[in-house]
Amino acid sequence: MAVPYKSGGPARPSVASMILVTGGLGSIGSHTARALLDLGESVVLTAHRTTRLPDFLADSDGVVVEPLDTTDAGAFLHLGERHAISGVVHLAAAPWDTPDPVDYLRAESTALLNALAAARAWGVRRFAVASSIAAYAGVADSPWREDAPLPTVAAHQIPVFKRTAELWTTLAVPGTVNLRIGTVWGPLGLGDNPFFALPRLLTAAVRGEDPDLTPPRPPARSGDATDLCYVKDCGRAIALLMVAERLEHTVYNVSSGRLVRYTEVVDAINDAIPGATLTLPPGGEPGGHLDITRLQRDTGFVPEYDVERAVADYVAWLRDHDA
Fold it and tell me: InterPro entries under this entry (predicted)?
């Protein structure tokens, strides 16, 4: 039975089982929801600041939006009184630039513990939590595989928490899936991304602006290469992991499975946007990327968006949404 879109509403259980996606109106969350709907699932999407659905979800049956502060344990548990939740994808996150690491770790830890407690209370079949490619910081060999030994020390608060979250989740909930998500870009993502320059290059080209990559913005050089995953592929991979009948592992890399050169992306941008003449200065380094053999073997996932198709799709979306 399809469950119609609503925001909040009276406390009454949903008839059909549903998958809860925290941070469900963000870029990865909303595309995960779209992929789950395409696979025949119904979804509950939580949001902290807005309950407005993106247009690619707005006319869909089987979508419920619930306002939620994930640090509120009682409110989290109450979701199970209104909906028959059979799985959880925990993507909600504290702002990456929270300046005090204690504040950041407290917010992230509280939200995760609340999600784990709720999942245990509801007896969910599967619990997926967003980890990150940053978990491999300090690992020399690429492509990075899930069984690579990880350094015990991390230089930034994000990989510190992500590594910890993987341990907590695997301990607390049967059916855990730790999602080591790669370098994701696409609709609803940050156009001025603080971690890599490609979204800035593309959005500036669509707007006819100089990309202005002066520090503290990250650089873009002709020798640079990175892990790169279009958000629609990322969402579909997560959805496939959630619905798979059986998974052999608790940790999965989620990305395209290849190293993408910045020059490939710049060439695609120049081809997709008339008049665009982006060039990259010399220098740079190749970086690393995620191996997705596990993901492909256990779910059948194959990326649908190569660089050219991803750029064309992102450009079209930006033009339709007042880039």
Answer: Epimerase_deHydtase, KR_dom, Lipid_A_modif_metabolic_enz, NAD(P)-bd_dom_sf
How do residues 229-247 score in pLDDT, each as one tens digit? 999 999 999 999 999 999 9
Q: Which two tokens stand for residue 115?
A: 């999600």
Contact between residue 243 and residue 177 where contact means Cβ atoms under 8 Å apart = no
Phi-psi domain of 40 (left: phi exceeds 0; alpha: psi -120 through 50; beta: other)? left
- In single-letter form, the type of residue at position 154 comes to A
The gap from C-alpha 297 to its chain's centroid, in whole angstroms, comes to 21
Distance CA 44, CA 22 (A): 8
Instruction: Enter the DSSP assignment of 72.
Output: -
Question: In angstroms, rounded to a whole number, what is the distance separating the alpha carbons of residues 1 and 10?
Answer: 19
Q: Which residues of the chain have pLDDT under 50?
A: 1-14
Q: Which residue has the tokens 């665009």?
A: 276
Global pTM exceeds 0.85: yes
pLDDT of residue 153: 81
Q: By C-alpha distance, which of 309, 227, 302 is closest to 262?
A: 227
Distance separating alpha carbons of residues 266 and 88, to the nearest angstrom:
37
